[in-house]
Design goal:
alpha/beta; Rossmann fold; Alpha-Beta Plaits; 2 domains; 10 helices
């Protein structure tokens, strides 16, 4: 499985500049996506939350200020780092961008090396400290990485992954609100399963948008595994509207499903955190 990359959304109406930035940041090791319209930027952030947005102010439909305002007003996207990239140089423009919570502001023509360093610094700032998922409130990102790295250095640990399959199809069909409601419900079921089984030192967090991890520093997670799997298999159909319940016998590849995976040191060796995460997310 490919190395997990930090993602950048480039919002730029100048096609040549957009293509240059896209190619440059891909070479730098980022996962880059480009859109040319403000509304498309908002939809892209809601569907697949990027780690950072490079945002032009002058766009064909709504301006970058309005894009930033809408991103900051939505819980899912309120903490995405934003770097404004624009030809506007006026002090009021800079102040307006900063008032909207922009992390940085660069005017054209720009030095690509300077932009790269500003992107790196903004991502580093975003990854510092405790990070919680804006939808479920569970730990994610560097907080989960630190926990996995901590137990990896020990000899008796278990990590359980519960991953929702076809969440993107569900979101496309029923909307972001329904998908967020589903994520919150699943996060509660996972946390309650850990609590109800009396698992000691149980840590629950996100691994990716659709994955939940339970980490135990000692002992088995067999009971948690069974309880999560049973509860989710019984509940997934009820996330659909009453007039659109999937048939129990349906074999549709687009149905919501749950994939479970439990990992212990015996499944390794795991040389580092990257190895462990790749193994968890594979298959």
């Amino acid at each position: 499985m490919a190395e997990i990359k930090q993602s950048i959304l480039i919002v730029e109406d100048d096609v040549d500049v957009a293509e240059m930035l896209d190619a440059y940041f891909r070479v730098q090791g980022y996962e880059a996506t480009t859109v040319h319209w403000g509304e498309d930027a908002i939809l892209a952030c809601r569907k697949n939350r990027p780690d950072l947005v490079i945002l032009d102010i002058r766009l064909p439909d709504i301006d970058g200020f309005e894009v930033a305002r809408q991103l900051r007003e939505a819980r899912r996207t309120e903490n995405i780092p934003i770097i404004f990239l624009t030809e506007k140089r006026g002090r009021l423009d800079v102040l307006q961008g900063l008032e909207l919570g922009a992390d940085d502001y660069i005017t054209k023509p720009f030095d690509i090396q300077e932009l790269r360093l500003r992107v790196r610094n903004a991502l580093n700032r975003a990854n510092q400290g405790t990070i919680s998922n804006p939808v479920t409130g569970l730990p994610e990102g560097s907080w989960v990485d630190e926990k996995l790295a901590e137990v990896l250095a020990k000899g008796n640990w278990t990590v359980l992954l519960a991953r929702l399959i076809n969440l993107d199809h569900f979101r496309d069909a029923y909307g972001f609100v329904a998908a967020d409601d589903e994520l919150r419900a699943v996060s509660l079921m996972v946390a309650n399963a850990v609590r109800d089984t009396g698992t000691t030192a149980g840590f629950v967090g996100h691994l990716g948008v659709d994955g939940f991890v339970v980490v135990s520093e000692s002992g088995s997670l067999d009971g948690v595994h069974e309880r999560i799997e049973t509860r989710l298999e019984q509940s997934l159909a009820y996330f659909y509207p009453l007039d659109d319940q999937p048939e129990e016998t349906s074999q549709s590849e687009r149905r919501l499903a749950i994939h479970m995976k439990m990992v212990t040191p015996g499944d390794g060796p795991f040389r580092n955190l990257s190895n462990l995460k790749k193994y968890l997310l594979s298959g």
